[in-house]
Design brief:
By secondary structure, the protein is α/β, with parallel strands linked by helices. The protein is built from 9 helices and 16 strands.
Length: 366
């Protein structure tokens, strides 16, 4: 079973008005990651069961366009996206990632049901299980099959719910930029698709996208079973750095990009030392979050212990950060990167930044 990749689409959610791809529509889809600091777009294909990226392009953003995965400046953001796609001549059919604190994933066990009856049963359960008014939400789901429980066999269903306002705002920006949205997928699901081959170890694997927020997931056999978010992402790091050094966010971003890492360097100026101390603190805090997620999952789902994981995203390339995060969490973490079709595919973009966009470009693994 592949990860949950069902898109938020017209048959379930008429007001979203996304078109589902059909077998006759084989034009390239561009995977699009939109964050507070940049957009990354990728075109990819599925080869021998793994995602291979053929083109990647990126565009840095001025501060203030996005916050916590929500559009703040729609006109300016649309202009930036329009420029990105025009400059690199990318396919305007896009699948975009969603990663906000207003998105909830639940695993719900139902009595064995026919597929056509699942949605009605979930709506009844969701009123109690999901802390969000459903009349202002977008919901999607996928069943992962029958499981044995103390109450007998149950149909296990993964449910995703997010606030409709944020989805509508993002879709409006894409259309304003001249793009044609084909689907919306949870960002962490796309990361699992792109990096699922990176950790061959059996059992549950932790994935973390170190973006504006940190999106954490635990998957077994490629199926996402659990997600949570942590605040210690790029947005928090930049805000803390700007505050401590009394500098604008743009300068904080430049200072972070010039960092020489978490671990000991003999000669550092004051700014470099501030970055090193902040990254060490962030790694310690986030390591505790990853460890707590792994322990909770193993306890609540009566699963094998989570011992390994793979991370990607803007914080991953910082020297020594993943090593410090691994030490703090007690997990064997590696830094994931996309597989590329050729040496020119990345066009200067770090391979550790592109898994999310690459996973979005390919909506299904089978």
């Amino acid at each position: 079973m592949s990860v949950l990749t069902r898109q938020i689409s017209a048959p379930r959610l008429p007001s979203v008005r996304l078109r589902k791809p059909t077998a006759r529509r084989s034009a390239t889809v561009t995977g699009l990651e939109v964050s507070a600091t940049q957009a990354i777009a990728a075109q990819a294909s599925l080869q021998d069961g793994r995602i291979v990226v053929e083109r990647v392009a990126a565009r840095p953003f001025p501060p203030g366009l996005m916050r916590d995965g929500v559009v703040i400046e729609p006109d300016r953001l649309a202009g930036e996206l329009k420029s990105l796609f025009a400059e690199h001549r990318l396919s305007k059919r896009v699948r975009v990632g969603l990663a906000t604190p207003r998105t909830i994933l639940r695993v719900i066990d139902l009595p064995p049901l026919d597929e056509r009856d699942i949605r009605a049963a979930l709506l009844m359960q969701a009123q109690e299980r999901i802390p969000m008014p459903l009349d202002r939400a977008v919901m999607d789901f996928q069943s992962v099959g029958l499981v044995d429980t103390p109450d007998g066999q149950r149909l296990r269903v993964i449910v995703v719910v997010t606030e409709r306002e944020g989805v509508d705002r993002l879709l409006n920006v894409l259309r304003q930029a001249g793009l044609r949205p084909e689907g919306i997928d949870l960002s962490i699901f796309a990361v699992i698709r792109a990096l699922g081959h990176s950790v061959p170890a059996p059992g549950p694997i932790l994935y973390a996208q170190l973006g504006d927020l940190v999106n954490i997931a635990i998957a077994e056999a490629g199926v996402c079973r659990f997600t949570r978010q942590a605040p210690q992402g790029l947005a928090m790091v930049l805000a803390r750095l700007a505050e401590s050094q009394e500098i604008p966010l743009e300068e904080a971003q430049a200072l972070l990009q010039s960092a020489r890492g978490v671990h000991h360097v003999e000669v550092r100026d004051e700014g470099e030392q501030a970055v090193a101390d902040l990254l060490a603190r962030t790694a310690a805090e986030l390591g505790s979050e990853l460890r707590a997620a792994a322990e909770f999952y193993s306890t609540q789902f009566a699963s094998d212990i989570v011992t390994a994981g793979v991370v990607a995203g803007p914080l991953a390339p910082l020297p020594g950060f993943v090593q410090a995060l691994s030490q703090a969490s007690g997990l064997e973490l590696i830094c994931g990167e996309v597989t590329t079709a050729n040496a020119r595919a990345l066009d200067g973009v770090d391979a550790r930044l592109a898994p999310l966009a690459g996973g979005l470009a390919v909506g299904e693994l089978n």
